[in-house]
What does this fold into?
Amino acid sequence: MLDLAILGILHEAPMHGYELRKQLALKIGPMRAAISYGSLYPTLRRLQSSGWITEAGESSADDEAVPPLTSRRGRVVYKITAEGKERFQELLAQTGPETYDDPGFGVHFAFFARTDADIRLRILEGRRRKVEERREGLRDVLARAAERVDAYTLELQRHGLDAAEREVRWLEELIANERSGRPPSQRATDPETSAVQPGHEEEPPGQTPRRM
Amino acid sequence: MLDLAILGILHEAPMHGYELRKQLALKIGPMRAAISYGSLYPTLRRLQSSGWITEAGESSADDEAVPPLTSRRGRVVYKITAEGKERFQELLAQTGPETYDDPGFGVHFAFFARTDADIRLRILEGRRRKVEERREGLRDVLARAAERVDAYTLELQRHGLDAAEREVRWLEELIANERSGRPPSQRATDPETSAVQPGHEEEPPGQTPRRM
DNA sequence: CTACGGATGTATCGCGCCGATACATCGGCG
DNA sequence: CGCCGATGTATCGGCGCGATACATCCGTAG
It folds into this structure.
């Protein structure tokens, strides 16, 4: 999972660890908290020993011969290899585990711009299936347990159900967009510029206008 | 984190591992996927060796003397100890780490019925602070990066922001309810389900009815 | 002018939790 | 009668986290 994210970032530009982490936070930040160095550096080493990435020494060739007084540790710039790019495509196509709170989905989605259309669709539908299952589970629990559990637990389940329903709707929208072969949303952050391509058939119910 | 959840469930009734896991899924399911046995059993052992729980042998006293042919492994029923109850209260009061995707919050919330009012408030406000920080971060990114990243990444960030805004509003509501000293939600998703009797200790009735 | 703190930068250690896997029993249904 | 799914306990490898350590650079407050 981290492998995919790192290869994806390095696919855009060579980078050293610290910068890599910041880019990672921007890319997958919406789904996962920033990854820790305790994962990053070991993973980088693993990727390197697998041959997916290499060190692209950043030395400006003037003081590298001096392993100086305090064991100087210059920044280490990594770049992706050809095998790494293959590996990246391979990882892109793999669906994560069957659990609901799979952070892998967010990472996959973040790299959709570099993913084939059919794979995009497969990932989105897989995710939808999972969230739907979860939604159904929560509905059952809520319907059956309304009398047996305390009000706080109930409220938590209600909130979870709401989030699940909302995500399913979001996914439906994205899937519909994918099927009609156009990039995701000319949607606007400011409400008045929302020119969302009128004159398209189907989608009578949808069109959740992204407002609060 | 699992410690808290397990102690909380066992606080209600003695139970064996398999059943425990199912109850756990009902309780904290809305926030986390079902926990795995690879966590559950080692944790149970740890809790036991710490003295928070004990084995309450389930044998109906008729065939326990026969360690029979195939090394029979009867179900092991655990129950919470007095020290375990103290530990539970101690864990309840602790705020989790400062990261956004802290699953600890959900677990804490699930046991709010057994949590002191001031602690409830502290947990809710802590959570709100975290989600607000995340929300601000995403707003900045979205405002600044609208031109620089691809449409998919943008969409992901938008969805994350939406979820964060929604959770903040949810938390505001809960906090307001807490402050006015009444249990969460006499809310009616369906009008007829309003007879939710929490039936728990304390909580003097202020009962100024309020809808969400 | 200096020292102080904050950003940049690399790295390790312990451990919580996950997913896969193994193995055993029991009840029901074809 | 035999198969299968639910019940039930358990281990193993490994990923990722949080804490921690340490070193450099730079702006600025004293």
